Amino acid sequence: MPENKKNYYEILGVSKDASEEEIKAAYKKLAKMYHPDLHPNDPEATEKFKEINEANEVLSDKQKRAAYDYEQEHPGMGGSDAFSRGGFGGFGDIFDTIFQGFGGGGGGVQRDRSGDDVQIQLTLSFMDAAKGCKRNLTYSRNEPCPACRGTGAKNGTAFKTCQRCGGRGELRFTQTTIFGRTVRVGACPECGGRGSVIEEKCPDCKGRGTVRRETTVTLDIPAGADTNSYIRKRGFGQASTEGGEAGDLIVVFRVEPHKIFQRKGLDLYVDLPVPFTAAALGGKLLVPTLDDTMEYEIPEGTQTGTVFTIRGKGIKTKNGVGSLFVRTVVEIPTKLTREQKKALAEASSGFELRQFERAKKYADSLSALYGKDAYKK
Predict the structure, then answer these.
(1) How confident is the model at residue 364 (pLDDT cuts 50, 70, 90)?
(2) Which of 102, 142, 233, 328 is least enclosed, having the fewest CB within 10 Å?
């Protein structure tokens, strides 16, 4: 074995004739042991984890394992470091070159010919997002040129057979490696895989096959849309320049805040001002909801910060319904008449006496612990 060459069998702790099940079991055990989440800020564990994954990637693939074994048995073929540098440019390059598309099928190369996607941000009001709405959206995109029907050729017919590929749209590349002679199939760079080239360009689109147009689309936005959620409209993106399908329109939402409600998922939160007398005596109050207001009865002695849960009054979607959380904020009167002050003082005299008694007990306990004047400090 070449010097400084990683032994993937030793890294996983298995023998050279280990079965696929043994390799899989060894990998799982070591991956759990050295996972970076279990060893934060440990570069040695991170490097070990990378080696384990690299070894598993090769030994768990029959073709890669066979190629690796061959190199270990014939280190002089293609250079002693053929798999790590030089010769074939590393594992990714060698296996992409040798095992990608063995020739003979004649089916050409499958490529994504669809147009690019168009992404647009759309701002929604809080209520529109919560309850759902319809919006007309106008934007610019590339559409097939009507003059040449998207071909890029004058009158849509000014084509000639590609001389480089003979109209096949593909070229075959033969390569001799340590594994023998291989054939790789690729799209013809001259015609882009079409098999024909434009003889005379369309004057309207200058041979591009597309023209810039404004498009208007109606969006049916479901209830519950939130910031960074999105909808996709198939076929409303950029037109393809290679005869494929158009890309998609992706509309990403940004929801404006509300003056009253706050939102977390499908749940709503609202602060409810409560009159001093209602907080003390209890009673029915009007609570705002997305649709209207509703009566809700609070108990006597309600304090500021008390939270009441009203189920089913959050955001309603086809996947579920949220709750409304009501947080009370007791309002203390600031401007009272002399008569009101007198009446309030008489009504609260009992409370003040109990408050004085609680404060005195607290002061006495401090005196017992730290001296009679401790409560004054």
Answers:
(1) low
(2) 102
CA Rg, the chain, in Å?
37
Does residue 266 contact residue 217 with C-beta atoms inside 8 Å? no
**Rounded Cα gap, residues 11 and 56, in angstroms:** 9
* Contact (CB, 8 A) for 37 and 49: no
Contacts of 214 (CB under 8 A, 6+ apart): 138, 139, 140
Which token pair is 282? 């209890």
Q: What angle do CA 217, 222, 224 make, to 5 degrees?
A: 135
Position 345, amino acid: A
Strand partners, 263: 268
Distance, in Å, from the CA atom of 332 to the CA atom of 300, rounded to the nearest integer, reads 16
Q: Is the dihedral of CA 168, 171, 174, 177 positive or negative?
A: negative
pLDDT in tens, 298-340: 999 999 999 999 999 999 998 899 999 999 999 887 777 888 7
Beta sheet of 230-233, edge-to-edge order: 118-124, 249-255, 230-233
Give dist(CA 179, CA 38) in Å, integer. Answer: 41
Task: For residues 156 and 153, give the distance between their C-alpha atoms in angstroms, rounded to a whole number.
Answer: 5
In angstroms, the first-to-last Cα distance of the chain is 82
Q: What letter represents residue 48's amino acid? A: K
Task: Catalogue the long-range contacts made by 72-78 (C-beta closer than 8 Å, 24 or more residues apart).
Answer: 72/1, 72/5, 74/178, 75/1, 75/2, 77/178, 78/177, 78/178
Q: How many CB atoms lie within 10 A of CB 196?
A: 16
For residues 111 and 49, the model is more confident at 49
CB 52, CB 11: distance < 8 Å? yes
Closest CA to 274 of 255, 302, 248: 302
Which alpha helices (DSSP H) does the chain contain, by range? 8-12, 20-33, 43-59, 62-73, 91-99, 126-131, 276-281, 338-347, 349-370
Percent over 90 (pLDDT), the chain: 33
280, 300 contact by CB (below 8 A) = yes
What's at 29, amino acid-wise?
Answer: K
The whole-angstrom separation of Cα 65 and Cα 20 is: 11
Contact status, residue 258 vs residue 315, Cβ threshold 8 Å: no
